[in-house]
Structures
1.
Amino acid sequence: MLVGVCIKWTPGRPEVDTSGSVLTDDRFGGVSLADQAALEVALSIGDQVKVVCIGPEAAVAALRDSLAVGATAVQFVACGAQPSSRDVAVSLAQHLGGCELIVCGDYSADRGSGSVPAFLAAQLGASQALGLVAVERKGTNLECVRRLDGGRREVVRVAPSSNSPAVISVEGSVAKLRRASLAGTLAARSANIPTANAGINADLNGEITRYRPPTRIVAPPKGNQAIDRIRALTDSTAAKSRGELVTLSPSEAAERIIQAMREWGYLTS
Amino acid sequence: MSQQQISFEERMAHSEFRVHERAHIVVDGKVCAECSTTECVTACPANLFVPTAAGGIVFNYEQCFECGTCYLVCNKEGAISWSYPEGGHGIVFQRT
Amino acid sequence: MSTDFDAIVVGAGPAGSCAAIVLARAGKRVALIERGPFAGSKNMYGGVVYPRILDELIPNWWEEAPIQRWVTRRSTMLLTDTQALTIDFRSQNWGAPPYNGATAYRPDFDAWLADHAVAAGAVLVTSTTVTGLIRHTNGAVTGVHTDRPDGDLTAPIVIACDGVNSFLAKEAGLYPDVDADNYTLGVKETISLPKETIDERFAVTDREGVDIEILGGTNGVNGGGFVYTQLDTVAVGVVLKLSKLAAQKTRPEQILAKLKAHPAIAPLIKGGEIKEYSAHVIPEAGYEMMPKLTADGLMVAGDAAAMCLAAGIWLEGVNFAMASGMYAGEAAVEAIESGNCNASGLAGYRKRLENTFVLQDHKKLRHAPHLVLSDRVQHLYPQMVANLVERMFTVDNPKPKPGIRRILKQERKRAGVKLSDLARDGWTGFRSFG
């Protein structure tokens, strides 16, 4: 089975200088533990493993490290901009043809949104199981455990095949990346790293603004005593919950969630 | 905050340590229990050695500068075994 | 016998990279093995490098080396709790090619040197710790074990540039014994300040820098201190004799904090923010502690061979490391070409060291480290000299000015310095430094 792995390299030791710009140091850069776990999962499942990385030139180091631990192919996609998750997914998908399974890390080292795997699944028309805490191979299938809210777990069976690929993303605790052999390390030093251009020049679509929760209008609290008014404002038992329980088909549920987010002011378009 | 008042934690927080799961310092508790001079406790620049009420030494290895002071000052043969952490791990200096 | 490489250099510090540059340029297959994630990542020092030895290897090195500032002001400072006596020298000649001393961060400088080794054709392997020597049944070193899976590497010559703790030199039995008295601990803080503030406080401009060496100010622990300027940081540190530090029960960072609070130092770093705290051990005793430099198939260079020169007014190490590495590389090329990699075939290494500043300086200054770190030089003389100067320049009219000879005599007695000791130390100093 050909397994694809997507990793994200990020520079290290960010510092804000006196002018307010962020300085980073490539020597301290690397990939997240989750991405490392993804590579290890791929190496333990796949006969062949192809690692794809989009990023600045320094990210090539991460691909050499991947070759050193046993990746059979790598692809570097040069991109100087700060692309959106969707643009990244579109670009990654072009290099993952033939992969039955694609393993990603659940988070990047720079606290990204972790949304690339979902966009990638959409782009490839693949099934997805994201945010996994365990992956076990059962024959041709994978038995995965997914983290849910409130300490609950969900067991997901993933059945990848050549005409129906799957995208999974794993947390860092799922596997510890093996140490590269000396021979692997030596060979990777001088290996040719295929390079493509992402053709993404645009930074994140739209304007980047500081996140602010939407304003809520609160009526003046009732009560003669100050303590009563404070209670009225702060007592959680008195607060009205905005939640509602609905039972709908997945597509209807998604529509309803988007509608609710619009009503509550989290989405403006 | 004036320079002298920074806590030891604050001092160490500016260094990058890529901690390996296996300790590269090993201390023989039996030898340390007999030790009254505890040179390592004073001299280790990373303050990794802490005396316990029971008279022993608790040690950490995670924030080690890998300088070698501990085994050099320790005059108890074999009390501190020290080697380098696995390649790629441990202290990574930036402006030194 | 076919081997993986012609030579293996352990440690990509200044010694290792220079050895690798020489070997690679001579067309030899050389591996340069570094345990840190990049060359220089494990390295820290007092702060000034004297790179003239690079003239040969990297002509016009000053045009490309990652230098922070060129030292154009050098101060030697004597501190007591309340006094400071400074001899300050400035030369604009040191601010133009070929320069003299320079401040640089080791993670930058060492990585730059290692890049030259790679450009010359050396195979740099990072994040790989050498765990031991591979030896032939006759005892000759034939390679190294590393901590990577299938990590053995073979070569007829191994050059150990693995730093002050050199486990390889010890494993090969080149160090007779390890005595804490021969080592000092250096701790320093890198403190950030705006460049303009540093320029103003240290009276320098552009890329000019200052190097302040301090005797005293180490809370009674034998050693010394230093202040160096980088572009937008100041390094302040202390060097402490290990045996005295352990006995004194004051922790290194407390001693450093006290130096930083000294009225002569505090204004220099006021308002600065700590960027990094670091520590490293220094092979202080120089020539007196040097190991055997060669064995069959093995050479030792740099700090691993205790080639750090800590002689009070001269504090150098990186230049000795670069030179010893370079000469080890040359000797290795010679040995490989002659087919004799035994100690006899590597004899060119010691010969080169003896014919150059490396061992000549060390031999000449062999007694200096112990003199500088001796109790009298550390605890009695600074107070005596500071008091002498204070009395010379104190105007306490209506008393007339006292004669300097009389003050000297009085202050010598007050400090408890015997004339015979003063004469002996003076003679040792004169023989070493004269």
2.
Amino acid sequence: MPTSVPPAPGAQPGPTYSTPSYQTPAFTPVQVRQSFGQPYSASQPAYPSHNFGPHPPHVPQPQTNYPRNVITATAPAPEPTKKKIDWPESVRSYVQRSFLPANLDESVTRQEMEAKLKETISHANDSGVMYTINWETMPLPQQMIQEERSRVRAVAKPVSALTLSKKSPAVPQLASLSLSSKKRKSWDVAEAEAAAAAAPPPWRSNAASRLEDRVTFSPADKRLTSDETTAKILSKSQKQMEKRQKRFDGGYKSTYRSPSPPPSNGPVVGTCQTLEKRYLRLTSAPVASLVRPEPILRQTLELLKRKWKKEQNYSYICDQFKSMRQDLTVQRIRNEFTVEVYEIHARIALEKGDLGEYNQCQTQLKALYQMGIKGKPIEFKAYRILYFIHTANRTALNDALADLTPAEKEEKAIKHALNVRSALALGNYHRFFQLYNDTPNMGAYLMDMFVGRERLAALCNICRAYKPDVPLRFVTEELYFESDADAAQFILDYNGQELLEDRDGKILFLAGKAGVLFEDARATAFSRIDIKGQI
Amino acid sequence: MDTIFKQFAEAQVKCLGYDLSHTLSPDLSHENLRAVFKSCNAHDVKTVIKRGIQNSGVGGSLPKEEVQGWVEVYHAYWKAVGELLAIQESSTANGKSSNSSWSSIYESWKELLSALIRGYLTYGFEAWTIPCLYVAGRHLRVFAIRADTERSNNMSVESTAEANFEDDFNPESEKNQMLEDCARQLNRVFNLCLSDRAPIEHSRKWGIYYVINLLFKTYFKLNSASLSKNILKALSAGRGDMPALISFPKSQQVTFKYYEGVLCFLEENYVEAEKHLTTAWDMCHKDALKNKELILTYLVPCHLLTTHTLPSHKLLEPYPRLQKLFLPLSRHIKKGELHAFDLALQGGEDEFVKRRIYLTLERGRDIALRNLLRKVFIAGGFEEPKAEGGKQVRKSRIPITEFAAAISLGSQETLDNDEVECLLANMIYKNLMKGYIARERGMVVLSKSGAFPGTGI
């Protein structure tokens, strides 16, 4: 028997996709937030490196005895490790091993190694595994970096190869650059540059009142702007301060939480070149390097459309769309592309019955259409009406009606939705189910949500009005069940077994005997409409 | 300024809150505003005000802190007056651009309200002075609306929206930025009044309904009437210590009851709505036509649904607008003209939707249909009398087709029998008609006694 249990009216969509973690990741996870350097990211500018002899890594420093170099003199003051930490011998030798000439990797600059070491060790320290980790088998920083690079390449290459090779100093060039550029001012500048490029602290990207930040860079133009240079020193001490603070927090939380971000008064302009991005709710002002500009987002949308078609992994798609919407919002991009993103997300959410997300998209779409941006307003205004029928939100329904122009009322989809509304308002279930049979676009997904409760309501009507009985066939047709079996199952689901009778091979529904059997179920069905994200 | 201090002293001596509140009014003529503003300058304004209050004849008897509080209030008032003057002058000298705008007026007026709130919280202002809060709150709302209009007319002005970390933008709050802020300020005042624990005769609780009404008004304007629920909840939580509504000024009672009724109306709780609205109607001043019209706008649809009664011509006589709204519909309902009803509803749709009564009036169609079916029933005539002189009994078995014919009479559209049955089933289910459908025989069997309850047959 085909499934005949109607979707519980107003039931919450299953929680499977509400968790941000993917059970089966359909993509290689890209670290978005927590790493320190990401010096290999596509937007990373080339920076000069030095080929001097080993010098103390800029890490929480074990007081090792390997040769020191003069360059330390230029190191900016506050070393986070000035406080006394008794570094275990194993860590010291791990650091030493990293800098053994035999282990050095030409394509990995010293700064990257130092950053990596710093990250590794401080992470170990923060999470309290400093003494338990087997440092002997720990991969060397250069190995870790290489591994991460190939991972990033794997993700970024196929889709944005063009962007990478043409528009930014790409990964392979890095090595040669680091070899050739003998001239550099000080290593800390280079490191600060790396840090600045990878993760400008919020207070800097925030100061969007400056002209540069308002200009939309063409993707070809992703170099360091002059103010980024001036901010290098600052950014460095800022980072260290944060690190110190973090240590006192005792946890490994958001790395980029600036102590007090000044209020921003303009949108950021993103510089991130990665197509995919996990969604994270913003807790502080957005960081330009983690925000994708519109050209990248356009590529992202194409990628997501393909992936959705191929993999149908809703939790992944929803997460990605949310991060897209976030990027659009923080950059105040409101154009036809924005509309397209919201429309596609809304349709996907509809298909999957994720009404919370759907409703968020719909609210935005309404505003975007009102701003005169083109899209598919007819389709979505019709959904909007159906949605408010489902949520029984009369105030919103009234607003939706007020929002329609006379011309729109004549459009097929909207006219259909309006007819559904009036049919239900007048209790005309006969017409309602005819309309259900003939729903344009994806409206049927919405109608599926409330067709169950309307069947109950209609059944209550029939039970009160007809005596002594009606053919089951009549119920099937009036309430638009797929088959008599479905209709019977529906009745059985509500304990109506007594009401079905076989008489001379014809099944009868004893409407007159039903009494108030379906009334409770009906009342429950209509009272239970509670949707996450509903306005 | 001197006049202000004179009024201030008089009001303080006699404890006349409303008189006191007049000294904070921004509704002054241009000359008076200018006189106030020019009487001192930015450097000496505080000294002038302080001296003014102390020399006003009441200064000596006021506690020192309270004087300090009033100095701050009048200082804020003086600044706001300056802003008001600036915008008046810039609008007369047209073409000349000016920095002043309604949003800066709003901001300066907000300062005034804050100074007042501080006055109550830290400087010990007494409860009889609450009309000052009314003046401040009332005008804050007006200025907020003007500031929002000004901004939307002037799109080139960069939005000063604070950084928020939402994933989507909020179109409503961008449009009504100031008014939303205003709602927050009024909420502060609400809590200021609600949380006062002083004995009732010295309590700020006496300000509560005025503020609530202002808040309701603001929420409705913001299209978020549902927020009013929170206010009602907070109110009923503290109702035990609250003076009864009946002891507040009538004007406040009427407004409050009106909003309470409309809120119920929007939630389809027509019985409650009718109760509140009727209270408001009975208490409303007989000459307050505008208010009475507003009350009737919701009370009439309420009546239609709860008691199936229609407004009389006499009731609507003073309100031409309401006549236009309700009379055509009433006529068609009465006569059971289904199709004409549909047309009238459609014709007035925009107006009905605007007043949020469309969905309610639409249900009047049931009554129209009931009246039509009743006519069919009456037209059916009587059974053959079984015995001479026996009581006449109406024909209670009526073929579906007769009803079907009646329904399609106006529209000339033929409905199939199943749909007609569906409509009849609804009538029966809603208890507008008593009887049952015998589908096999294509008949409706109506009750012999009271087939159409409440209509005399």
